[in-house]
């Protein structure tokens, strides 16, 4: 487990590290609580924070609260508070501030390892719940909620780096596939298209047969090339079915980042382009603002 430990005493830090590192834990030590909080925000692999209440410049209770806000956003984190005095009021304050557990300082090896085993069980369960909350169960892609969260992060980054493009895609005549072959085959078609876009960027299933793909560091021309390659690959898909292999095609709408843009604006322009692709014959890629599609139906 990756663990951050915060205490004003380097002796205490070395003592705890000496108990944990031989067990294979990755340990980061801090005497400065502000530095520790910054490290937590930048290192999502940290699964446990062990901190004293008597730390500076951020107090122990404030550190618990700030760490809990980081942990609750989208990652599992267990917070264990150390104190040399087992005061009921102090314990209550720590738990109310976001701590999960409490341990005496300095901790014994047996108790420390037991607390960390409990923390590992807790964070493993949290990670599983996060995956369930963020994952589309049919395709394994991000669901709409998770995709929109990642989209806001990508747009915030694009505000400083410049390039970001969005691709919305939709399976053509999907209802016909369901009607002709049944919903089981329809599900296989949905999964096949999801596999097609998985790993190509920030990919999500928005619902039904519609997907979204964000392409950081890609301008409009490069995004159009990605979408065109996906269009051609979709044409080559063959889904086994009782009546024979099912063929399909997809339509694509593409937009790119503008200075001062928003997630809604970026995706709305891609959605308008997707609508144009569907209205002008399907099986094509259309860029926002273009009157003619990039590729004609095959």
UniProtKB/TrEMBL annotation:
It comes from Methylobacterium brachythecii. InterPro entries: CheY-like_superfamily (IPR011006), Diguanylate_Cyclase (IPR050469), GGDEF_dom (IPR000160), Nucleotide_cyclase (IPR029787), Rev_trsase/Diguanyl_cyclase (IPR043128), Sig_transdc_resp-reg_receiver (IPR001789). One of its GO terms (cellular component) is plasma membrane. Its EC number is 2.7.7.65. Residues 162-290 form the GGDEF domain. Residues 2-120 form the Response regulatory domain. It catalyses: 2 GTP = 3',3'-c-di-GMP + 2 diphosphate. PANTHER family: DIGUANYLATE CYCLASE DGCM-RELATED (PTHR45138:SF9), REGULATORY COMPONENTS OF SENSORY TRANSDUCTION SYSTEM (PTHR45138). This is diguanylate cyclase. GO terms for biological process: cell adhesion involved in single-species biofilm formation; negative regulation of bacterial-type flagellum-dependent cell motility; phosphorelay signal transduction system. GO terms for molecular function: diguanylate cyclase activity. It is an enzyme of class 2 (transferase).
């Amino acid at each position: 487990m990756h663990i951050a430990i915060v205490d004003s005493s380097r002796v205490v830090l070395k003592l705890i590290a000496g108990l944990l590192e031989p067990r294979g834990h990755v340990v980061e030590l801090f005497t400065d609580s502000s530095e520790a909080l910054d490290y937590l925000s930048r290192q999502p692999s940290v699964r446990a924070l062990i901190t004293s209440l008597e730390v500076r410049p951020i107090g122990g209770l404030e550190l618990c609260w700030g760490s809990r806000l980081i942990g609750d956003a989208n990652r599992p984190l267990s917070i264990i508070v150390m104190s040399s005095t087992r005061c009921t009021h102090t314990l209550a304050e720590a738990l109310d501030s976001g701590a999960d557990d409490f341990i005496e300082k300095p901790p014994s090896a047996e108790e420390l390892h037991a607390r960390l085993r409990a923390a590992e069980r807790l964070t493993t369960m949290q990670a599983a719940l996060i995956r369930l909350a963020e994952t589309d169960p049919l395709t394994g892609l991000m669901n709409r909620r998770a995709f929109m969260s990642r989209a806001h992060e990508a747009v915030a980054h694009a505000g400083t780096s410049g390039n970001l493009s969005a691709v919305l895609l939709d399976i053509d005549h999907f209802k016909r596939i369901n009607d002709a072959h049944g919903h089981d085959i329809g599900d296989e078609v949905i999964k096949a298209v999801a596999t097609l876009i998985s790993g190509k960027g920030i990919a999500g299933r928005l619902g039904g047969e519609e997907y979204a793909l964000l392409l950081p560091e890609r301008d409009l021309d490069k995004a159009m090339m990605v979408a065109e390659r996906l269009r051609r690959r979709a044409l080559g898909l063959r889904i086994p079915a009782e009546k024979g292999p099912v063929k399909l095609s997809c339509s694509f709408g593409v937009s790119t980042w503008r200075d001062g843009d928003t997630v809604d604006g970026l995706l709305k322009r891609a959605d308008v382009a997707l609508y144009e692709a569907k209205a002008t014959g399907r099986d094509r890629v259309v860029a926002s603002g273009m009157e003619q599609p990039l590729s004609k139906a095959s």
